[in-house]
Amino acid sequence: MSKQPIRVVVTGAAGLIAYSLIPQIAMGACFGADQPVIIHMLDIEPCIQGLKGLEMELEDMCNPLLKGVVATTDPKVAFKDVDYGILCGAFPRKQGMERKDLLAKNAGIFKEQGSAIAAVGKKDARILVVGNPANTNAMLLQKFSNLPTENVQAMTRLDHNRARNMLARKVGNVAGYQVKNLIIWGNHSPTMYPDVRFCTVEGKKLTDLIKDNDFLQKTFVTDVAQRGTTVIKTRGSSSATSAARGALDHVHDWFLGNKDEWCSCGVYSDGSNYGIPQGVIYSVPCKCLGNGKFEIVKGLEIDEFSKKMMEITSKELMEEREMALAAV
Asked: pTM for the whole thing?
């Protein structure tokens, strides 16, 4: 008996990330090679031509897993009965814009989308927020959607993937996927903390392979945090293909499971783990169990350097939370 289609909404669907992401969802890269999908695409009215063009391309792919496409500028149409969402759309930071103004602009967007989910969405939908500032946007979406806190996450998988490949290049003669149990702590911002203390490479401790603490605690941390800016300076626009891959990896593991290694996921903090304040979406190590379930990896030792770095990103997230909530 064939599986029932999953309804998946992608916002910012006329943008570059979605252009890389949506065809791969249609071909089974996200939910599996035997899982039919119906893709809902949402964007704003000025982007309607791009949305219609992508809809035509999806039709022309003649893909057996794609059972339907909904292209719309109405959030209540886009979020109707969806099972999963990948929210790429957000207001971009423009030159001269202060952080509080960016947070206020996005607060309105994610309040509207969260309210649409509350009105017409499934009560067990799983939503991944990609659009920046992703952690705080995810916090707002959860608040206004009334979804369970564990059902809304922010993407730090792109940072996770970037960091693994940087470490692999430093080790030499290994690939990024062979670096296991990296952790991205905190915010998807320059304050994020990539923690290598528990990493292994083919069963060996990474810190036995890279004994340069100055690299691990300074150069590496900075390079991971600034990688997005470096990409913009190099190619003239922000990461799109790699961001799409991060989103695919995140939702793939959330849906199908990945018990072999830790995955960095921005999840709601209830205040009980690692001194992370309650009420923020904070990236932590997780084990993805499949069917939209996960477990936070608990009980890890936090040394003084890590504690300091984690507190810096916690402070930023609390400040963002206060400014965003003040705007709504």
From this structure: 0.96
